[in-house]
Write a structure and sequence with these properties.
Number of helices: 7
CATH architecture of one domain: Orthogonal Bundle
Largest sheet: none
Structural class: mainly alpha
CATH topology of one domain: Cytochrome Bc1 Complex, Chain D, domain 2
CATH superfamily of one domain: Cytochrome c-like domain
CATH class of one domain: Mainly Alpha
Distance between the termini: 61 Å
Bound molecules: heme C
Radius of gyration: 19 Å
Order of helices and strands: HHHHHHH
Oligomer: single chain
Amino acid sequence: MMISTRLTLGLALALAACKATPPSRFERAVAAQVKRHVTVGGKSDRNPFPATEQNVSRGRKAFSAYCMACHGLDGQNTGVPFAEAMSPPVPRLTAPEVQLYTDGQLHWIIENGLFPSGMPAARGILDDEQMWRIVLFIRHLPPAGSLGEQATRGAR
Ligand code: HEC
């Protein structure tokens, strides 16, 4: 009993110590690879919508209704004060590590979210067509800041 209590305490302390250290570059790189190759599905799913101006613009509208709170209207965190503070931080969707995903993987991320990060699942909130059009918008993001800032507080 004594021993196991001490062991548990020791483990708890060791875990606490672990938590206090930010993940190393290596750990983060491994996590990113696992995410890219294992967690995120849909790799070979094709976008049924061509990148016409109308489809991209519809994607932008859906994005500015559901995603802008965390990603900004431009997908580059413009006007999102907490983006850097989230763990992991909200990435700019123009970043190479995001653009390297296939269309199908981006669609999968939107539909399922990324557990346990702050990226929520849109399944049941957005329909499939909206999700595919949002993928088109992610491929055609405007220059950072060009869409202005969203009104996060709303009109009262
Ligand atoms: C509540 C805040 C929030 C909302 C709303 C949100 N996201 Fe995210 N998003 C995040 C966070 C936090 C991350 C970083 C997650 C990670 O790297 O694990 C993220 C990451 C992403 C990524 C990159 C994933 C990666 O592996 O690098 C994409 C693409 C994305 N979001 C698209 C969207 C789209 C499209 C919408 C709207 C349908 C949306 N997000 C709505 C918070 C949000």
